[in-house]
Amino acid sequence: MAIVQAPPDPIHTTTLAEIQPGRYVCREIHAAGQDAVRLKRLGVCQGRMIELVGRGDPMILKIGASRVGLSRQLAKVVLVDPASVSPLNPESAPVSAPAPAV
């Protein structure tokens, strides 16, 4: 198995294995070989919206219109941000009101 542990990141260290149910955006993936290919085929890639539905092992994720199971061991190499604050997800940016017409 080619799982590569995520290096320590002083700014952000939340992995997919540590989160609570909710919506997140994939920030980075620290996997190599077949594990990287497997994640990509499941739809887990940088910038993708991921919803954690179930925290078991395997974890149940909603990616697009699909639900997939992902082992906790593989989830440890996926860094995520909450969807509401991610710079990778333009949909999460606050919407400002249009300026009044003059």
From TrEMBL:
Matching Gene3D superfamilies: 2.30.30.90
This protein's UniProt keywords: Iron
One Gene Ontology MF term: transition metal ion binding
Xref: InterPro entries: Fe-transptr_FeoA-like, FeoA_core_dom, Transcriptional_repressor_C
Domain Ferrous iron transporter FeoA-like: 14-82
Superkingdom, taxonomy of origin: Bacteria
Statement: the UniProt record of this protein carries the keyword Metal-binding: no
Protein name: FeoA domain protein
Source lineage: Bacteria, Pseudomonadati, Planctomycetota, Planctomycetia, Pirellulales
